[in-house]
Amino acid sequence: MQEVLAVYTQRALAVTVRAYGTQRGGLAEHIEEAIESALRAAGAGPAGISFDRDEDTRLSDQLFRARRAGHDGIAIRLTALRALCAPVGGLDAADAQAVAFYTRAAEERPITFEMEDADKMLPAFVVAKPLDEVLRGEMESETETETETETETEETETESVSLASIIAAPEPEPDPEPEFDSRWPEYVAALEAARGPQTLASFERLFVHSYLPLANAVDAGLTERAADFAREEFRRTFARAYEAALPTFALTGKRPRMVLDAYDVAAKMGRAHGARNVQVLLVEGMRYDVASRVVTRVAALSEGRGALVDRVTLFSALPTCTPRQLETLARGVEALKTAYDDRDGEPMRGRAADAVRRMRIGSRDLYKVDLVDTEQAAEAVAKHLRAQSDRTLVFVFGDRGFRWDRGVAKHGGASPEEVIVSGHAFLVGDLR
């Protein structure tokens, strides 16, 4: 058995994760980022469209890409776990559960997960007590001074168990699909914890996993004051920062990938995937979360003619209206150096709003869908894909998003929902 394991490990994608320097409670994300880094170094393809659903789906996606890159599985080695015990002397519950997840996954999937035996005995603070239970216990046991009572309260708020017992515990049954507001405290906590400068990748993850679901919950009727405050605070902070940074993009060259880069992004993806032809297809007002639904539906309607091969996050110029984005596509980064001259949008030229139409942007062609109804937009894009010749790469992207205001969709502002969109590349043809 050891010989077989040794051969398997040699063929597996090696991932070393050093916990030292990782933020307490962030081990799961740190392990995922280490796996993604190893996949990129191995030349693996991009994540699939359902990658961000949950940890189980993400691991399945990573294993699939590892196999496509020539590896039999993933071998993870975790070191310096004790560093995450500071300053309270035990692991955070989230970090302990991350270790348990990968340990259990190794029993069912082509994964090895190694860690030092001594680390398995580290304490983990996972048994919490309600505050009223703590207070009742303190009042019953109060025999000395008020100072002694306060000290004991601090010590009894949580209890620790060994990491080994958490790993050995049976995996809990999955909860039923939560209602729209059941996880809002998690989203609020994540937004409140995001203070100070962040990497672009960390910000995008926060936007996708915490801000968007919280914003959608509030828009759907969640009336919790903390949820509304967290949503509005994050929105205001982003809008102020983005409005201040946008004028510098053309001067410094330091900027995120934007809608105006769509042609360059599509060309690079075309070269990477061996495409003979490259097309750029804009779906008006297709914000980030709408794009996920549209792309999933396109894949189902394309009748095997279109394979999703790549994706990217894009930022819209301000104001977040379609004529402004068309201007930036025509002029590139130079458009950011001048103030936007508000004017009427480009006419429809007699075509149906839910059909793909061809138009000229400067000296280049742009394909465009003017209606964002998920089903109609997906049908239009899928029909367009089916009509293309083999090895044509079609880059489908949103030009700007929208925000809900008392049930009315509005755009033109600098909220995250209006600014952040995504692009997805489909490669057409018999690709066997």
Summarize the structure.
With 432 residues, the protein is α/β, with parallel strands linked by helices. It has 15 helices and 14 strands. The protein has a six-stranded mixed β-sheet with strand order 8-14-11-7-10-9, sandwiched between helices.
Count of individual beta strands: 14
β-strand percent reads 15-25%
Helix content: 40-55%
Uncertain runs are 1-9, 143-157, 344-351
Describe the fold and architecture.
With about 425 residues, the chain is α/β, with parallel strands linked by helices. The chain has three domains: about 170 residues, no CATH class; about 70 residues, no CATH class; about 170 residues, no CATH class. About 45% of the residues lie in helices and about 20% in strands. It contains 15 helices and 14 strands. A hairpin with a 2-residue loop joins strand 12 and strand 13. The longest helix is centred in the middle third of the chain and has 28 residues. The chain is globular and about 65 Å long. The protein starts with a helix and ends with a strand. The N terminus is likely disordered.
Any chance you could write out the topology, listing elements then pairs?
Blueprint: H1 2-11, E1 13-18, H2 27-41, H3 55-68, E2 74-79, E3 91-92, H4 93-108, E4 111-115, E5 123-128, H5 131-140, H6 146-156, E6 158-162, H7 163-168, H8 184-193, H9 200-219, H10 225-252, H11 262-272, E7 277-283, H12 288-301, E8 306-315, H13 322-331, E9 357-361, E10 364-369, H14 374-386, E11 392-398, E12 403-405, E13 408-410, H15 416-419, E14 420-428
Parallel strand pairs: 1-2, 2-4, 3-5, 7-10, 7-11
Antiparallel strand pairs: 5-6, 8-14, 9-10, 11-14, 12-13
